[in-house]
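F.,

This is the one I mentioned.
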Protein backbone atom coordinates (compact mmCIF):
# COMPACT_ATOMS: atom_id res chain seq x y z
CA UNK A 1 0.00 0.00 0.00
CA UNK A 2 1.49 3.35 -1.02
CA UNK A 3 1.75 6.24 1.39
CA UNK A 4 -0.84 8.09 -0.69
CA UNK A 5 -3.43 5.35 -0.12
CA UNK A 6 -2.82 4.77 3.58
CA UNK A 7 -5.38 6.46 5.75
CA UNK A 8 -4.80 8.80 8.68
CA UNK A 9 -7.38 10.17 11.08
CA UNK A 10 -7.69 12.34 14.13
CA UNK A 11 -10.17 10.69 16.48
CA UNK A 12 -12.33 13.01 18.57
CA UNK A 13 -14.48 12.03 21.51
CA UNK A 14 -15.34 12.66 25.13
CA UNK A 15 -12.32 12.84 27.43
CA UNK A 16 -13.91 10.24 29.72
CA UNK A 17 -12.95 7.59 27.16
CA UNK A 18 -9.32 7.99 28.19
CA UNK A 19 -9.49 9.32 31.75
CA UNK A 20 -12.33 7.14 33.05
CA UNK A 21 -14.18 9.96 34.80
CA UNK A 22 -17.48 8.68 33.40
CA UNK A 23 -18.62 5.19 32.48
CA UNK A 24 -18.30 4.47 28.79
CA UNK A 25 -21.49 3.50 26.93
CA UNK A 26 -22.23 2.24 23.42
CA UNK A 27 -23.90 5.58 22.68
CA UNK A 28 -20.83 7.72 23.27
CA UNK A 29 -20.01 9.62 20.05
CA UNK A 30 -16.73 9.35 18.20
CA UNK A 31 -15.71 11.52 15.27
CA UNK A 32 -13.17 10.18 12.76
CA UNK A 33 -11.62 13.12 10.93
CA UNK A 34 -9.77 12.02 7.81
CA UNK A 35 -6.52 13.98 7.52
CA UNK A 36 -3.44 13.91 5.27
CA UNK A 37 -0.69 11.67 6.56
CA UNK A 38 1.45 13.70 8.94
CA UNK A 39 4.21 11.14 9.52
CA UNK A 40 7.49 11.68 7.73
CA UNK A 41 8.28 8.00 8.26
CA UNK A 42 5.86 5.23 9.24
CA UNK A 43 5.49 4.40 11.97
CA UNK A 44 6.80 7.59 13.51
CA UNK A 45 7.02 8.47 17.21
CA UNK A 46 5.74 12.04 17.28
CA UNK A 47 2.98 13.62 15.21
CA UNK A 48 1.95 17.26 15.42
CA UNK A 49 -1.41 18.26 13.94
CA UNK A 50 -1.95 21.93 13.14
CA UNK A 51 -5.67 22.42 12.69
CA UNK A 52 -5.41 25.31 10.23
CA UNK A 53 -3.16 23.25 7.93
CA UNK A 54 -5.68 20.42 7.48
CA UNK A 55 -7.94 22.19 4.99
CA UNK A 56 -11.24 20.51 4.19
CA UNK A 57 -11.68 17.18 5.99
CA UNK A 58 -14.32 14.48 5.90
CA UNK A 59 -15.65 13.77 9.38
CA UNK A 60 -17.60 10.61 10.16
CA UNK A 61 -19.50 10.52 13.44
CA UNK A 62 -20.56 7.23 14.98
CA UNK A 63 -21.13 5.81 18.41
CA UNK A 64 -18.62 3.59 20.18
CA UNK A 65 -21.15 0.83 19.56
CA UNK A 66 -20.75 1.35 15.80
CA UNK A 67 -23.98 3.21 14.94
CA UNK A 68 -23.51 5.81 12.20
CA UNK A 69 -24.52 9.33 13.23
CA UNK A 70 -23.62 11.13 10.03
CA UNK A 71 -20.95 12.53 7.75
CA UNK A 72 -19.92 16.08 7.06
CA UNK A 73 -17.14 18.11 5.42
CA UNK A 74 -15.48 20.50 7.81
CA UNK A 75 -12.50 22.84 7.82
CA UNK A 76 -9.71 21.72 10.13
CA UNK A 77 -9.65 25.02 11.98
CA UNK A 78 -13.40 24.76 12.64
CA UNK A 79 -13.42 21.36 14.36
CA UNK A 80 -13.33 22.98 17.81
CA UNK A 81 -14.42 26.09 19.58
CA UNK A 82 -12.75 26.36 23.00
CA UNK A 83 -12.74 22.60 23.48
CA UNK A 84 -16.28 22.05 22.21
CA UNK A 85 -17.44 20.69 18.88
CA UNK A 86 -17.62 23.30 16.13
CA UNK A 87 -20.94 24.16 14.43
CA UNK A 88 -20.51 21.56 11.66
CA UNK A 89 -20.02 18.70 14.16
CA UNK A 90 -22.49 19.77 16.83
CA UNK A 91 -25.61 18.43 15.07
CA UNK A 92 -23.93 15.01 14.73
CA UNK A 93 -22.73 14.54 18.30
CA UNK A 94 -25.65 16.24 20.07
CA UNK A 95 -25.52 19.27 22.30
CA UNK A 96 -25.31 17.13 25.45
CA UNK A 97 -22.10 15.55 24.18
CA UNK A 98 -20.58 18.54 22.41
CA UNK A 99 -17.36 18.61 24.47
CA UNK A 100 -14.85 16.86 22.21
CA UNK A 101 -11.12 16.39 22.61
CA UNK A 102 -8.59 14.90 20.22
CA UNK A 103 -8.17 11.42 21.69
CA UNK A 104 -5.60 10.05 19.28
CA UNK A 105 -4.08 10.16 15.85
CA UNK A 106 -4.70 6.95 13.92
CA UNK A 107 -2.51 5.71 11.09
CA UNK A 108 -3.28 2.82 8.77
CA UNK A 109 -0.51 0.22 8.66
CA UNK A 110 0.45 -1.21 5.23
CA UNK A 111 0.16 -4.79 6.49
CA UNK A 112 -3.26 -4.16 8.00
CA UNK A 113 -4.41 -2.65 11.26
CA UNK A 114 -3.66 0.75 12.72
CA UNK A 115 -1.05 2.49 14.80
CA UNK A 116 -2.32 4.73 17.56
CA UNK A 117 -0.74 7.95 18.77
CA UNK A 118 -2.00 9.20 22.11
CA UNK A 119 -2.70 12.89 22.57
CA UNK A 120 -0.35 14.50 25.08
CA UNK A 121 -0.90 18.21 24.41
CA UNK A 122 -3.96 19.91 22.91
CA UNK A 123 -4.22 23.60 22.09
CA UNK A 124 -6.42 25.87 20.03
CA UNK A 125 -3.80 25.92 17.26
CA UNK A 126 -2.49 22.37 17.34
CA UNK A 127 -2.07 19.08 19.19
CA UNK A 128 0.84 16.73 19.79
CA UNK A 129 0.53 12.94 19.71
CA UNK A 130 2.99 10.19 20.72
CA UNK A 131 2.81 6.61 19.43
CA UNK A 132 1.45 4.21 22.03
CA UNK A 133 1.22 0.97 19.98
CA UNK A 134 4.30 -1.13 19.36
CA UNK A 135 2.38 -3.26 16.84
CA UNK A 136 -0.68 -2.40 14.70
CA UNK A 137 -4.07 -3.07 16.28
CA UNK A 138 -7.57 -3.75 14.96
CA UNK A 139 -7.71 -4.95 11.35
CA UNK A 140 -10.71 -4.04 9.22
CA UNK A 141 -12.30 -0.86 7.92
CA UNK A 142 -11.66 2.11 10.15
CA UNK A 143 -15.35 2.75 10.81
CA UNK A 144 -15.76 -0.78 12.15
CA UNK A 145 -13.81 0.44 15.19
CA UNK A 146 -11.90 -2.83 15.69
CA UNK A 147 -8.91 -0.69 16.66
CA UNK A 148 -10.71 1.12 19.50
CA UNK A 149 -10.11 -1.39 22.30
CA UNK A 150 -6.42 -1.72 21.41
CA UNK A 151 -5.94 2.04 21.43
CA UNK A 152 -7.74 2.53 24.75
CA UNK A 153 -5.85 -0.40 26.29
CA UNK A 154 -2.53 1.11 25.18
CA UNK A 155 -3.55 4.41 26.73
CA UNK A 156 -4.24 2.73 30.07
CA UNK A 157 -0.91 0.91 29.89
CA UNK A 158 0.88 4.27 29.69
CA UNK A 159 -1.59 6.27 31.75
CA UNK A 160 1.07 7.71 34.08
CA UNK A 161 3.22 9.44 31.43
CA UNK A 162 0.19 10.29 29.30
CA UNK A 163 -1.55 11.89 32.25
CA UNK A 164 1.27 14.27 33.10
CA UNK A 165 2.95 16.46 30.51
CA UNK A 166 6.33 16.14 32.26
CA UNK A 167 6.36 12.38 32.71
CA UNK A 168 6.44 11.34 29.07
CA UNK A 169 10.02 12.62 28.95
CA UNK A 170 12.80 10.22 29.88
CA UNK A 171 16.56 10.24 29.60
CA UNK A 172 18.33 7.23 28.11
CA UNK A 173 21.70 8.40 29.51
CA UNK A 174 20.68 9.81 32.88
CA UNK A 175 23.68 11.31 34.67
CA UNK A 176 25.79 11.39 31.51
CA UNK A 177 26.24 14.30 29.14
CA UNK A 178 26.75 13.51 25.44
CA UNK A 179 28.07 16.52 23.59
CA UNK A 180 29.96 17.65 20.51
CA UNK A 181 31.48 21.14 20.37
CA UNK A 182 32.65 23.64 17.78
CA UNK A 183 34.71 26.72 18.61
CA UNK A 184 33.30 29.63 16.60
CA UNK A 185 36.04 31.75 15.09
CA UNK A 186 35.25 34.37 14.04
CA UNK A 187 32.41 34.42 16.53
CA UNK A 188 29.06 35.29 14.95
CA UNK A 189 26.15 37.09 16.56
CA UNK A 190 24.89 34.04 18.43
CA UNK A 191 21.26 35.25 18.40
CA UNK A 192 21.32 35.47 14.62
CA UNK A 193 23.08 32.12 14.37
CA UNK A 194 20.45 30.46 16.56
CA UNK A 195 17.63 32.03 14.56
CA UNK A 196 19.14 30.79 11.31
CA UNK A 197 19.27 27.22 12.62
CA UNK A 198 15.74 27.47 13.96
CA UNK A 199 14.44 28.79 10.66
CA UNK A 200 16.17 25.97 8.77
CA UNK A 201 14.62 23.36 11.08
CA UNK A 202 11.17 24.88 10.67
CA UNK A 203 11.63 24.75 6.90
CA UNK A 204 12.41 21.02 7.05
CA UNK A 205 16.04 21.29 5.97
CA UNK A 206 17.01 18.49 8.38
CA UNK A 207 14.78 15.60 7.21
CA UNK A 208 12.84 13.85 9.96
CA UNK A 209 13.56 16.56 12.53
CA UNK A 210 11.67 19.66 13.57
CA UNK A 211 11.97 22.20 16.36
CA UNK A 212 10.83 20.65 19.64
CA UNK A 213 7.08 20.98 20.06
CA UNK A 214 6.33 24.26 21.89
CA UNK A 215 9.86 24.37 23.35
CA UNK A 216 11.95 25.27 20.34
CA UNK A 217 14.07 28.11 21.72
CA UNK A 218 15.48 28.99 25.13
CA UNK A 219 17.48 31.95 26.46
CA UNK A 220 20.14 31.61 29.17
CA UNK A 221 22.15 34.41 30.78
CA UNK A 222 24.08 33.76 33.98
CA UNK A 223 27.38 34.00 35.82
CA UNK A 224 29.54 30.93 36.33
CA UNK A 225 32.20 30.43 39.01
CA UNK A 226 34.20 27.40 37.93
CA UNK A 227 36.76 25.42 39.91
CA UNK A 228 39.20 22.95 38.39
CA UNK A 229 38.92 19.77 40.47
CA UNK A 230 42.45 18.37 40.76
CA UNK A 231 41.80 15.57 43.21
CA UNK A 232 41.12 13.03 44.46
CA UNK A 233 41.84 11.22 41.19
CA UNK A 234 38.34 9.73 40.99
CA UNK A 235 36.79 13.21 41.35
CA UNK A 236 38.76 15.05 38.68
CA UNK A 237 36.82 17.36 36.38
CA UNK A 238 35.24 20.61 37.42
CA UNK A 239 32.71 22.08 39.81
CA UNK A 240 30.94 25.34 39.05
CA UNK A 241 28.51 27.52 40.96
CA UNK A 242 25.67 29.23 39.10
CA UNK A 243 23.80 31.80 41.22
CA UNK A 244 20.01 31.31 41.12
CA UNK A 245 17.10 33.68 41.68
CA UNK A 246 16.43 32.46 45.24
CA UNK A 247 19.81 33.75 46.41
CA UNK A 248 21.26 30.25 46.45
CA UNK A 249 23.25 28.37 43.81
CA UNK A 250 23.15 25.50 41.39
CA UNK A 251 26.28 23.39 41.75
CA UNK A 252 27.25 21.72 38.48
CA UNK A 253 29.71 18.84 38.70
CA UNK A 254 31.37 17.16 35.74
CA UNK A 255 33.73 14.23 36.08
CA UNK A 256 36.41 13.75 33.40
CA UNK A 257 40.17 13.54 33.10
CA UNK A 258 40.31 14.53 29.43
CA UNK A 259 37.88 16.45 27.25
CA UNK A 260 35.58 13.84 25.73
CA UNK A 261 32.19 13.12 24.13
CA UNK A 262 30.59 11.50 27.20
CA UNK A 263 31.04 12.93 30.69
CA UNK A 264 29.35 12.20 33.98
CA UNK A 265 27.28 15.21 35.05
CA UNK A 266 25.27 16.14 38.14
CA UNK A 267 23.34 19.27 39.12
CA UNK A 268 22.56 20.11 42.75
CA UNK A 269 20.03 22.86 43.33
CA UNK A 270 19.64 25.05 46.42
CA UNK A 271 23.28 25.13 47.53
CA UNK A 272 23.27 27.87 50.18
CA UNK A 273 26.73 29.43 50.09
CA UNK A 274 28.06 32.90 49.25
CA UNK A 275 30.77 33.48 46.63
CA UNK A 276 33.48 33.90 49.24
CA UNK A 277 32.62 30.43 50.52
CA UNK A 278 32.59 28.53 47.23
CA UNK A 279 36.11 27.12 47.61
CA UNK A 280 35.58 26.17 51.27
CA UNK A 281 32.37 24.34 50.37
CA UNK A 282 34.22 22.22 47.81
CA UNK A 283 37.21 21.48 50.03
CA UNK A 284 35.62 21.18 53.48
CA UNK A 285 32.20 19.77 52.55
CA UNK A 286 33.10 17.65 49.52
CA UNK A 287 36.74 16.87 50.25
CA UNK A 288 38.02 18.12 46.90
CA UNK A 289 41.30 19.71 45.92
CA UNK A 290 40.43 22.63 43.66
CA UNK A 291 41.88 25.58 41.79
CA UNK A 292 39.70 28.65 41.27
CA UNK A 293 39.27 29.75 37.68
CA UNK A 294 38.33 33.24 36.43
CA UNK A 295 34.56 33.75 36.70
CA UNK A 296 32.72 34.34 33.44
CA UNK A 297 29.31 35.36 32.21
CA UNK A 298 27.60 32.94 29.86
CA UNK A 299 25.00 33.98 27.31
CA UNK A 300 23.45 31.02 25.54
CA UNK A 301 20.69 30.54 22.97
CA UNK A 302 19.34 27.04 22.67
CA UNK A 303 17.63 25.63 19.60
CA UNK A 304 15.90 22.38 20.52
CA UNK A 305 15.46 19.79 17.81
CA UNK A 306 13.08 16.82 18.00
CA UNK A 307 13.30 13.67 15.90
CA UNK A 308 9.80 12.76 14.75
CA UNK A 309 10.92 9.19 14.06
CA UNK A 310 12.36 8.37 17.49
CA UNK A 311 11.14 11.13 19.81
CA UNK A 312 14.71 11.93 20.89
CA UNK A 313 15.38 15.62 21.52
CA UNK A 314 18.72 17.31 20.91
CA UNK A 315 20.03 20.79 21.63
CA UNK A 316 21.97 23.01 19.25
CA UNK A 317 23.40 25.63 21.59
CA UNK A 318 25.19 28.85 20.68
CA UNK A 319 27.03 30.43 23.57
CA UNK A 320 29.26 33.37 24.39
CA UNK A 321 31.44 33.12 27.51
CA UNK A 322 33.14 36.36 28.56
CA UNK A 323 35.47 36.73 31.55
CA UNK A 324 34.03 39.07 34.17
CA UNK A 325 37.42 40.66 34.91
CA UNK A 326 38.73 40.67 31.33
CA UNK A 327 35.84 41.27 28.88
CA UNK A 328 38.23 40.99 25.94
CA UNK A 329 38.67 37.25 26.67
CA UNK A 330 35.82 35.36 25.02
CA UNK A 331 35.01 31.78 24.12
CA UNK A 332 32.16 31.32 21.64
CA UNK A 333 31.00 27.81 20.85
CA UNK A 334 28.27 25.79 19.20
CA UNK A 335 27.36 22.61 21.09
CA UNK A 336 25.25 19.65 19.98
CA UNK A 337 23.87 17.71 22.93
CA UNK A 338 21.39 14.91 23.61
CA UNK A 339 18.76 16.26 26.01
CA UNK A 340 15.91 13.78 26.57
CA UNK A 341 13.36 11.63 24.78
CA UNK A 342 9.64 12.08 24.28
CA UNK A 343 8.53 8.49 23.72
CA UNK A 344 6.61 5.70 25.40
CA UNK A 345 8.00 2.65 23.63
CA UNK A 346 11.41 1.11 24.24
CA UNK A 347 14.18 2.32 21.96
CA UNK A 348 17.73 1.25 21.25
CA UNK A 349 20.21 3.51 23.04
CA UNK A 350 22.57 3.19 20.10
CA UNK A 351 20.00 5.02 17.99
CA UNK A 352 20.57 8.12 20.08
CA UNK A 353 24.26 8.34 19.16
CA UNK A 354 23.64 7.47 15.50
CA UNK A 355 20.96 10.12 15.23
CA UNK A 356 23.11 12.63 17.09
CA UNK A 357 25.88 12.02 14.56
CA UNK A 358 23.46 12.77 11.73
CA UNK A 359 22.38 16.04 13.37
CA UNK A 360 26.01 16.91 14.06
CA UNK A 361 26.91 16.42 10.39
CA UNK A 362 24.09 18.78 9.39
CA UNK A 363 25.12 21.42 11.93
CA UNK A 364 28.78 21.10 10.89
CA UNK A 365 27.82 21.81 7.29
CA UNK A 366 25.83 24.82 8.46
CA UNK A 367 28.83 26.20 10.36
CA UNK A 368 31.38 25.46 7.63
CA UNK A 369 29.22 27.12 4.96
CA UNK A 370 29.27 30.34 6.99
CA UNK A 371 32.99 30.17 7.82
CA UNK A 372 32.39 30.00 11.58
CA UNK A 373 34.00 26.63 12.35
CA UNK A 374 35.54 23.62 10.62
CA UNK A 375 36.66 21.09 13.20
CA UNK A 376 34.55 19.26 15.76
CA UNK A 377 36.14 19.17 19.20
CA UNK A 378 35.37 18.36 22.82
CA UNK A 379 37.03 21.58 24.06
CA UNK A 380 35.64 22.24 27.54
CA UNK A 381 35.23 25.43 29.56
CA UNK A 382 37.84 24.01 31.94
CA UNK A 383 40.38 23.65 29.14
CA UNK A 384 39.63 27.17 27.91
CA UNK A 385 40.19 28.68 31.37
CA UNK A 386 43.37 26.66 31.86
CA UNK A 387 44.65 27.97 28.54
CA UNK A 388 43.77 31.55 29.52
CA UNK A 389 45.70 31.31 32.79
CA UNK A 390 48.70 29.83 31.03
CA UNK A 391 49.15 33.06 29.07
CA UNK A 392 47.56 35.51 31.53
CA UNK A 393 48.31 34.22 35.01
CA UNK A 394 47.34 37.56 36.56
CA UNK A 395 43.68 36.63 35.92
CA UNK A 396 43.75 33.78 38.44
CA UNK A 397 41.42 34.66 41.36
CA UNK A 398 43.28 35.58 44.55
CA UNK A 399 46.48 36.69 42.84
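My design for it:
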Amino acid sequence: MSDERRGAWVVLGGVHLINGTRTRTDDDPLVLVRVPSLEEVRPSTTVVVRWADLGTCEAVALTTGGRLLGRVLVQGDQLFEDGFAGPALRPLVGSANSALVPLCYLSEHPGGGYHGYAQIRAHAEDACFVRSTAEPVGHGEVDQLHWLEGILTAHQKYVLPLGNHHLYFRNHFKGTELEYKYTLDPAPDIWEAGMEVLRALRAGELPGCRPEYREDFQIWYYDNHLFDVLGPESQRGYASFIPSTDGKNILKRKWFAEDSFARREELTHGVDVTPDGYADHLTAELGLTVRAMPPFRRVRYDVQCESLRTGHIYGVFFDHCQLRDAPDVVLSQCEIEYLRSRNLLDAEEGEVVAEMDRIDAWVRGFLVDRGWAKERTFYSKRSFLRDVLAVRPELEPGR
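The CA atoms of residues 146 and 385 lie 63 Å apart.

Talk soon.
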